[in-house]
Amino acid sequence: MQQAQLHPAIEKLAQVGHWTKIHGDQAVVWSPGLYEIAGLTPRAMISTAEARMRIHPDDHVAWLDARQALDGREIVYRWTRPSGEVRWLRSRMGSTATASGVPVAFGVVQDVTDEWSAKRALADQLAFVSHIAANVPGAIFQAARGHKGLPSVSFLSESSYEVLGVRAREVIADQRRFSPTFIRTT
Fold first, then answer.
1. Burial of 12 (C-beta count, 10 Å sphere; 0-12/13-18/19+)
2. Minimal CA–CA distance to 85: which of 17, 16, 36?
3. Three-state SS string across the chain, please?
4. What is the pLDDT of residues 80-136, one digit of tens each?
5. Alpha-carbon distance 106 to 39, whole Å?
6. Mean pLDDT, residues 23-44
7. Angstrom distances, CA of residue 177 to CA of 49, 110, 157
8. Could you read off the pLDDT of 164-185 as tens digits, one per residue?
């Protein structure tokens, strides 16, 4: 009983929810956490059509493929709340059977909007730095001393060949190609 009382609080804290659907039913049972993620008012059941209608059109086919397979693969998709706000959701879906052998599909859903926003901001920043690196004279790199004092290069501009005599993709593939004399020791 204590677990049942704690479950909604756990879902809210983890920004997760889940759904179950008995084979052949036209309705899906959502947890309170999933209703909260979706921005919908909780009720006993939701129709299959309504449960899917807010999946972004560009993500719908991939979601349906994962739903059909029920193989536990991770799917990330966009969901539009009734307010118009778009959220990024991560889900895995599987199947089991009740004690009487009735097939049941289920899914776990997590709101990963903050994670995706951070990834998008990081990608934008990397694109900005890459644009600068491609358009300034000289080589730009980010490196540190790695294992056994060897360099660990995380970024090297494409102009590195003209300046250092080594191509960026070669250095990223084989860190030993980057001369440790370029790295400050202090």
1. middle
2. 36
3. CHHHHHHHHHHHHHCEEEEEEECCCCEEEECHHHHHHHCCCCCCCEEHHHHHCCECHHHHHHHHHHHHHCCCCEEEEEEECCCCCEEEEEEEEEEEECCCCCEEEEEEEEECHHHHHHHHHHHHHHHHHHHHHHHCCCCCEEEEECHHHCEEEEEECCCHHHHHCCCHHHHHHCHHHCCHHHCCCC
4. 999 999 999 999 999 999 899 999 999 999 999 999 888 888 888 888 887 887 787
5. 20
6. 93
7. 57, 42, 14
8. 777 888 877 877 777 655 544 4
Are 20 and 105 within 8 A, CB to CB?
Answer: yes
- The CA R_g of the chain, rounded to the nearest whole Å, is 24
CA distances from 104 to 19, 85, 186 (A): 10, 31, 61
Kindly give, in sequence order, each residue whose CB lies less than 8 Å from that of residue 9, ignoring residues fewer than 6 positions away.
none
Q: 45 and 27 in contact (C-beta within 8 Å)? A: yes
84 burial type by CB count under 10 A (0-12 exposed, 13-18 middle, 19+ buried)? exposed
How long is the chain? Answer: 186
